[in-house]
Amino acid sequence: MEFKRLTDTLSVSPQITVADMPAIRAAGYRAIICNRPDGEGADQPTFAEIEAAALEYGIAAHYLPIESGAIRDDHYVAFADLTQKLGKPVLAYCRTGMRSATLWGLSKASSTPLPEILSVAQLAGYDLRGMTRRIVNGGKAPLQVSTASHDIVIVGAGAAGLATAASLLARDKLLDIAVIDPADTHYYQPGWTMVGGGIFQPQTTARQMAAVLPRNVHWIKAGVAAFEPDDHAVILEGCRVVKYQRLIVCPGLKLDWGAIAGLPETLGRNGVTSNYRYDLAPYTWSLVRNMKQGRALFTQPAMPIKCAGAPQKAMYLSSDHWLRTGRLQDIDVQMYNAGAVLFGVADYVPALMEHVERYNIDLNFGYNLAQIDGPNKRATFRRALQDGTFESITREFDMIHVVPPQKAPDFIRVSPLADQTGWVDVDPSTLRHKTFPDVFALGDVINAPNAKTAAAARKQAPVVAHNVLASLGKAQGLAAYDGYGSCPLTVARGKIVLAEFLYGGKLAPSFPEWLIDGKRPSRLAWLLKERILPMVYWRAMLRGREWLAKPEIVG
């Protein structure tokens, strides 16, 4: 971990972890300030985890969360007041350190010459030149001006964003494309279930962003603050503006850990884990491997969520390990599902139920996880009753795998692009925005009624690429997305129920039944998940090679 010094009493850094606390203490810091809201990234520990670890080392922790790209005047005033009050050596952090450095720069705008602010920040590795107008303005936000313009702007460099950029360039190498994303690391998130099951090593699911971005794409490493679709503009942090001819929106979704009382404080300890976070998936495997007896709970929140089968995958792989090691008879496995059915496509339920019965899993439907008491290892669930009231039950646990509620990112939910529920409002076939014809969207952030999976994004990316070019007069006809989604349900180590379906739950197998019968557990489907799909992801999907994903042109 590198601490970047701005003044004698203030340094900034990228996201810290619990493991960094000894180094932070040894470096002389006696207070930390978190400028990053919880739930911003899948590899991000919560502030509660950081605070608990800091207290163990005698370090005061303060929470001043700032949405990426949305620093208001009162934010830097509060930052200045807090750092002045603390006095002692302080370490402020966010995703990359940029927000913290920006807060410092703005707080000094009225008392320090511009060249000195820029020079100090530059020496620390932060370029605040994009804030020049605001710093000159005493820290107050000036009128917005355009600083960049591109033919196509893509918000989000996850699976959907990079696949779409690659598919566009595969069709026209001369396109001027910019991708906006502040993250340094790109994750193969479908692999985290396998990490939690002890099959993959976590590092195999992560690569540096610079290594996976398509060539000739402009990477704008910044957070998005707002959209102005009437003016064809995206507003970035520091009041920078990026203009576009066509906008593609795919920033993923937000994991709302804070929606469950007590959860942020106990994640990664007390037997509380989740495969939905990069740094916690190995803890899942540690808990499973070391559990000899007791009760294991698995939860699933209300839809929509990323990969609706993932909560079950964790449960089946864990149960299979306990069965293989002769411990399952001493472990009480229970699932609490906010929904009313085991899986949304009924054709796959019989095969899943065979494994539920094989592992003697107690299924409970209609229950939402409401609260966790980590130290006492108790989970409280709520269920709506027919008379409109609610009942609560509390269950003790030795291990609990939690899937948090999920929603669109905050900057999406408050934007003109969102529908009443907060998701980007698109035509489910063309993936074009229903109100703004120059805007397209795909991936987890859209309101189309498809499963939110990487397989869906793989099918959507070529559709969006074709339709964007058609809208620019560079392609003929319209491509249609049929709602395809795939969920390889790992019912046991070495066996997968390969669920594939379209809008409305219509089955859509990619292989003949004699090769892979998706309604039955298959060894070949497991090999597809373990060996083939990661290679397809890194070497095909992110490079514009549309294996089994060519779009249908409908007119």
Automatic annotation (TrEMBL):
Cited Gene3D superfamilies: FAD/NAD(P)-binding domain, Protein tyrosine phosphatase superfamily
Pfam families listed in its UniProt record: BLH_phosphatase (PF04273)
CDD domains in alphabetical order: PTP-bact
Domain Beta-lactamase hydrolase-like protein phosphatase-like per the UniProt entry, residue ranges: 3-110
Cofactor(s) in the UniProt record: FAD
A biological process from GO: sulfide oxidation, using sulfide:quinone oxidoreductase
InterPro entries: BLH_phosphatase-like (IPR005939), FAD/NAD-bd_sf (IPR036188), Prot-tyrosine_phosphatase-like (IPR029021), Sulphide_quinone_reductase (IPR015904)
Domain of life: Bacteria
Molecular function terms, GO-annotated: FAD binding; hydrolase activity; quinone binding; sulfide:quinone oxidoreductase activity
Keywords, in A-Z order: FAD, Flavoprotein, Oxidoreductase, Quinone, Transit peptide
Keyword Oxidoreductase: yes
NCBIfam families: TIGR01244 family sulfur transferase
Name of the protein in question: TIGR01244 family phosphatase
